[in-house]
Amino acid sequence: MGKTVKKVWNIITSVLVTLAVLLAIAFVGVRLVGLQVFTVLSGSMEPTYHTGSLIYVKAIDHIELKSGDVITFMLDENTIATHRIVEVVPDEKDPEALRFRTKGDANNTVDGGLVHYKNIIGTPVFSIPKLGYLANYIQNPPGMYIAISVGAILLLLVFLPDLFANDEEKETKKKKGIYVEEKG
User: Fold this and answer.
1) Ramachandran angles phi, psi of 15, nearest 5°
2) DSSP label at 31?
3) Per-residue pLDDT of the chain (184 residues; tens, 9 = 90+)
4) Counting beta carbons within 10 angstroms of the beta carbon of residue 90, is it exposed (0 to 12), middle (13 to 18) or buried (19 or more)?
5) pTM of the complete model
6) Order of strands across the sheet with 70-76?
7) Of 40, 70, 145, 179, whose CA is between 20 and 30 Å from 136?
8) Is 42 considered catalytic here?
9) From residue 34, how far is each of 22, 44, 55, 117 by CA, in Å?
10) Burial, 81: exposed, middle or buried (Cβ in 10 Å; 0-12, 13-18, 19+)?
């Protein structure tokens, strides 16, 4: 390969690898610092969190929560929601056991049931618009297969020039009469 082509190739592969690493950090790496990642699937929190946003949620002590705070919580085993607290309701039998009345910012009415403090996952600390669409896509087939294929192709793009460069360098040295020892 010519020097210019090789430089362009190196720049392109460096950019692609950097993007892949940044996406890996955005989707998974943040868990190392205690954040959980969720995709906003509905418009109930517009304009605070747009549909398709990726939200990053940190754990919080339920006693610190107050009216106006946004929480991410489990509605049931399979459903997670992010809504704003409109009222903190102490349990009649146990004042330490708090429950929270919530409402989506874009909703006209409060949510039907109270959120038990044990169902609270945490509070969102930041979000990245639109990135949730990509996260959701690559978590399920066919997106998962495409992501794996892109990763494999990216690895090939990074290492392929080095494999060919070694052969070309050996060929050039042979032509110039320089002895090249074959390994293997």
Assistant:
1) -65, -45
2) G
3) 577 887 887 888 888 888 888 888 888 888 889 999 999 999 999 999 999 999 999 999 999 999 999 999 999 999 999 999 999 998 888 877 899 999 999 999 999 999 999 999 999 999 999 999 999 998 889 998 998 998 888 888 777 766 666 555 656 656 666 555 555 5
4) exposed
5) 0.75
6) 35-39, 54-58, 120-128, 70-76, 79-90, 98-103, 115-116
7) 70
8) yes
9) 17, 26, 13, 19
10) buried
Residue 162 has what DSSP assignment? H
Options 42, 44, 67, 149, the catalytic residue: 42
CA separation for the pair 125, 110 (Å, rounded): 23
80 φ, ψ (degrees, to nearest 5)? -120, 140
Q: Which pair of tokens denotes residue 152?
A: 């494999």
Instruction: State the virtual CA torsion across 83, 84, 90, 94 in degrees, nearest 10.
Output: 40
Over residues 103-136, the pLDDT tens digits come to 999 999 999 999 999 999 999 999 999 999 999 9
Q: How far apart are CA 10 and CA 68, in angstroms?
A: 50
